[in-house]
Specification:
It is built from 13 helices and 5 strands. It is an alpha/beta fold.
Length: 380
């Protein structure tokens, strides 16, 4: 029931050339009676001469969440008609709330319904997705860059304990799976090469094939794919769960910058660890190829190591080293971006992790192809 001392809430509008002034009066509380704003909404949609909209709140009394909710309806309707909205005349607290509402990225849950007409226009639908994803990616990279600058200037920070923990999680903890996969990749390369080289009695060159293949390409690529499924998905799930539990909102309330506090240490950890994991994977792949070559193709271990030393040069290691560092950046970006864009439902967390893996692998393959072409054209 409305309080007897509570002022009646009122809303009205007046046009001054191309300017629409919306006047808000009285107390806007959930316990009061809500005035209708349908006439104003209809005016916004029908009057094509309106180009600007602003509010007058000189006689505004007490308010709660009811008022921002109504203002959002009007602002959304105005922006749909390409009408510029001036918020400076609103109380500062309402301005902060509206800034927070429109600064938050759109949530994409798995349960969202797709536009049926998009199925009839697949090309246009895909173009819309590509445009949206590019915009989200550029926005995330821009936010990360600004947070990095703020951190370097001492305006934001992250805890070194978290940074060391992320290094532990994506470095030493990943060694068992990297060891297994790299050994098997080296083994497969040796067997595939041996099938053709043995036809010419050139089994000794299996060492060249395995060592060059691992150092220049397969070591970094396979390590990146492993880390995408392992660490990239974990980053998305961790940050997504924090979104669901409103922990990221709590960080903002405590004046902690989430990009600096959560994302930057994860990105730095992967950039630092990926080249080291790549070198370790190169070694394990060469060992795996050596096991096959020595045991099945009448090549001594001394000959295998000698051919490997002659085949691999420092530039081959550097190519794999640079590629793996780029892969580390892409894995961290895809994992953290999907986590920060996660919705508020439990299913959104799983969707974010899946999307992080898909995005990371696509980025890695595209970047690897581009860098391989550049190396080929430069004769590296």
């Amino acid at each position: 029931m409305p309080n007897s001392e509570q002022q009646i809430s009122q809303i009205s509008s007046s046009c001054q050339n191309d300017l629409l002034v919306i006047t808000v009066k009285g107390d806007w509380l959930l316990t009061g009676n809500l005035p209708s704003s349908d006439a104003i909404l209809l005016n916004l949609k029908s009057d094509k001469d309106i180009k600007r909209m602003q509010f007058s709140t000189a006689e505004l009394g007490n308010w709660d969440s009811l008022l921002p909710t109504e203002l959002i309806k009007l602002i959304d309707a105005a922006r749909q008609q390409d009408i510029s909205v001036e918020l400076t005349s609103l109380p500062f607290a309402i301005q902060r709330l509206l800034t927070l509402v429109y600064a938050s990225p759109e949530r994409h849950d798995t349960q969202q319904k797709q536009d049926p007409s998009s199925k009839l226009n697949l090309l246009g639908f895909n173009q819309t997705i590509i445009n949206t994803e590019c915009k989200l990616l550029l926005t995330f990279i821009g936010d990360l860059f600004l947070s990095t600058v703020a951190t370097l200037r001492g305006q934001s920070f992250f805890r070194l304990q978290d940074f060391y923990l992320y290094i532990q999680e994506c470095g030493p903890s990943a060694l068992p799976i990297v060891t297994l996969i790299s050994l098997l990749v080296g083994l497969i390369l040796a067997f595939v090469g041996a099938l053709q080289l043995s036809l010419f009695g050139a089994q000794i060159y299996i060492a060249n094939l395995v060592s060059l293949g691992m150092t220049r390409e397969m070591g970094g690529l396979m390590t990146a794919i492993i880390m995408t499924g392992r660490t990239g998905a974990a980053y998305a799930a961790q940050l997504g769960t924090m979104q669901v539990n409103s922990e990221i909102d709590a960080l903002k309330t405590m004046n902690l910058e989430p990009m600096a506090f959560l994302v930057i240490p994860r990105v730095l950890a992967l950039i630092l660890i990926m080249p080291l994991l790549c070198l370790y994977a190169d070694l394990m792949g060469i060992v795996g190829g050596g096991l096959v070559t020595v045991n099945f193709f009448d090549v001594s271990i001394t000959e295998y190591l000698d051919r490997t030393a002659h085949a691999v040069q420092l530039k081959d290691f550097l190519v794999g080293f640079v590629k793996s560092a780029v892969f580390g950046i892409l894995i961290a970006l895809s994992g953290c971006m999907r986590g920060m864009q996660c919705g508020r439902s439990a299913s959104a967390v799983g969707n974010a992790a899946t999307s992080a893996v898909v995005t990371g692998i696509v980025f890695i393959v595209m970047a690897d192809s581009l860098m391989t072409i550049i190396c080929n054209r430069l004769g590296i």
